[in-house]
Amino acid sequence: MKKNTSKTNKPNIFLLTSLFALALMPEVAFAASNPILNGLNWLRDLLNSTLATSVAIVAITVLGYMAFAGRLAGDIVLRFIVGIILVFGGARIVALITGSL
Hints:
The protein has one domain. Helix content is about 80%, strand content about 0%. It has helices at about 5-25, 25-30, 35-45, 50-70, 75-100. The mean pLDDT is about 80.
């Protein structure tokens, strides 16, 4: 008795055709539309934006006024400077550590 194999091959043909179509569209197959990654990229862009630059300028100005008033300690200055370096140089620091630079 002969078996009908045409029905069992249809899903395999569909699967192979779909995989072939995805291979021709790498931007869809390897899309980085991860919501977490998008959120982290948004946060990185925010921290490196003109808003963050303005906040850093205001912070340095506040340090200047504190120095004029004689209320500035060395550890406060060091904290501000290290914070600004880490915020604006974070991506470069990670690239240096991971060796992708």
